[in-house]
Every structure is written in C-alpha cells, then in structure tokens.
Design brief:
12 helices, alpha/beta, two-stranded antiparallel sheet, single chain, 10-stranded mixed β-sheet, globular
C-alpha cells in the first residue's frame, strides 16, 4: 500500500522525536511491504526564521494533498516576541482549520510497567487508567473573535467563545461512536451552570444520548472533572468536551501516566485524513541532547496507521513493541526508575524498531 505523509518536524525536540517515529514507520513498511512517501514541511519557529511565516502556502498545500500529517512540536521562547498573527502556534490552528480536523482523540493509558511512575497513590490506580478524551478542535474560544482596545485609558482584551449545534453534534457523534467500540460509557464535560455555550452543548449531547441509548451517559462540570481525574480516574472511559476544556484536561490526564512524553494524539476530519502528534510541547531546554521521550510520537504513528490507513494489525504491532521494550526495563530520562536501564531518545527508537 502506498501512502503520502506530510512530515512536520517543527521546533525544539520535534526533529528528534519525529526521526525516531520514522525509524519505526520504515520498519513497518519493510515488514508489511508498504510504501510511505514523505513530504517535508517547515512549520512553527523554523518556518518563521526561514520565510517570515509559521507555515507557507506551499507547505499548507503539501499537507492538504497528503493522506496524513505527522507533527513533532512547535514554538519556544525564541519566538515569544513574534506578532500574534505569526506566532508558531498559529500554524497549528491553520492546519487544523484547512484540513477540517475537528475531532482530537487523546488516549490516556497507564502502562502496567509504569505504575510506580504515576504521581497518584497505588490504591487510586489499582483499577487501572485507560480513558480517551475526545476534544472538539476547530471551534470555541481558540477560533472566536478577539480584540484588544483602550477604553477610558484602560486596555481591554476580549476573546469570544461560540459553538453551533452542528459543531457540537458532529463531535458528539464521534464520541458516541467511539464509546460503542470501547466500554459504552461517556462523560460529557461542560460549564453549563455558567456558560450559554455549555448549556447548548448539554442540550445537544442529551439529544444524542437518547439516540445512543445503549451508551451510559452522564454530565460533568469541568471543575469537578478536573478533580475526579485525580480522585478516581478509573471511573472514566470516553470524555467528550469543547476545545479549551479538552486542551487543559488532556494535559492533566497525561500526567496520571507518569510522563506527558508517553501520550499520542490524533486529529481527524470527517474523512480518513488526520494529523498525528504527541501532546507535549517542543521542550527547547532539552533540544539536541538526545534525551527526549519519543514514545508519544511513535504511538501517534500507530494511531495514524489505525485511523487514517486502516492498518489495525500494523498499529497493534507498534503498540506491542512499545510494551515489550518497557517490559525489558528500558526507560528514557523522564520515566526512569530504580533498577531500570536508562536509554537515549535515539536508543529508545531503535529498540522499538528492532522489536518490530
């Protein structure tokens, strides 16, 4: 099978972790006789340095013409002083919008080998942690109108959050369909006691829950959800929420596993195209030191094979290879434990590729 992949290495540790993911992907190509054709696109700070914009029109076209996009990370202090319209993160929002990537899937799974790395007490995680956050990705306050003006000598800034019934129903159906393939349980997170957008969100979700009556559905206020993720994370299976809440809660959930470096994500459109990336940032403080954890990016490749290319077996092989390497005691610096074997970013990628 021949597939076109746009490779967006980005900034900081992005080139390192993407390099290890490609090492694994090439092993899959060789083992299963697939051909992956790569188009390399500068994005974020590196694109600003070269072209003055976080992504060029030509780069965007390469993304739009690909079957999937693999991203490392963007940004860093070097570009904090850039004008808001050309900040590195603007490129991510643009790619999501241009490719209509409205559904962000962020799994949080505690590997048995890393139980001691979790910050939670053992009695809390004894029931396991295996949940999926479905985050709406192209609406809400991140894409709303914004302005800054001076009124009566005082600077006033405004960001508008808005959602339509269509946007809510679209992400809701993704969540319910996903729940049917898991444990048939959904928590819908909102702030309906305060926000009009959340009250509309809740009405649409309730309507969908009647349609999917074999799924166990319940509402959770976002502040309570943040607390419950720490108190009793095993109660959750699928969590569906709007853009900003999902951004915050998924980062919180990732730390329950011991390291944000372990967490992959998929951003999907209504067809099979998607953008795949680890949920962590560019970590410029460790860039070039070969100490980053590439597992989140490697597991993102597994999600790409599963969701965009319908290669379930190949995805399973990558995930099993990760577990096997962890079983053998290999750890990068962020998840190192007493008695384990510390390895570099590149060594971890090689170990997982060789396991395949």
């Amino acid at each position: 099978m021949n597939k076109k992949i746009a490779i967006l290495k980005g900034d900081g540790i992005g080139p390192e972790i993407v390099g290890e993911a490609l090492k694994v992907l090439e092993k899959i190509a060789s083992k299963y006789c697939h051909t992956f054709e790569y188009s390399y696109v500068d994005i974020g700070g590196c694109s600003i340095d070269k072209y003055g914009v976080p992504i060029t029109k030509e780069g965007m076209e390469l993304c739009k013409n690909a079957d999937a996009v693999l991203l490392g990370a963007v940004g860093g202090p070097k570009w904090d002083s850039c004008a808001p319209e050309i900040r590195p993160e603007k490129a991510l929002l643009a790619v999501r919008k241009e490719l209509n990537l409205f559904a962000n899937l962020r799994p949080t799974k505690l590997f048995p080998q890393l139980v001691s790395a979790s910050p939670l007490k053992k009695d809390i995680i004894d029931n396991g942690i295996d949940l999926l956050i479905v985050r709406e990705l192209t609406g809400g306050i991140y894409f709303g109108e914004r302005s800054t003006e001076t009124i009566d000598g005082t600077v006033v800034s405004k960001d508008v959050m808005s959602y339509s019934e269509f946007e809510i129903e679209r992400i809701g159906r993704v969540a319910f369909e996903t729940a049917l393939k898991r444990n048939k349980k959904i928590a819908s997170v909102d702030k309906a006691n305060v926000l009009d957008t959340s009250r509309l969100w809740r009405r649409v979700m309730h309507r969908l829950s009647e349609e999917y009556n074999d799924v166990d559905y319940f509402d959770v206020l976002v502040d309570n959800c943040a607390m419950q993720l720490i108190k009793a994370p095993s109660q959750f299976d699928v969590i569906v929420t709007e853009n900003m809440f999902g951004d915050i809660l998924s980062d919180e959930a990732s730390m329950l596993t011991g390291s944000i470096g372990m967490m992959p994500s998929a951003s999907l459109s209504s067809d099979s195209r998607g953008m795949y990336e680890p949920i962590h940032g560019s970590a410029p403080d460790i860039a070039g030191l070969d100490v980053a954890n590439p597992i989140g990016t490697i597991l993102s490749v597994a999600m790409m094979l599963r969701y965009s290319f319908d290669m379930k077996n190949e995805a399973d092989v990558i995930e099993n290879a990760v577990e096997s390497v962890l079983n053998k005691g290999y750890r990068t610096a962020d998840i190192i434990q007493d008695g384990m074997k510390k390895v570099t970013c590149s060594e971890m990628g090689t170990l997982i590729a060789n396991e395949i």
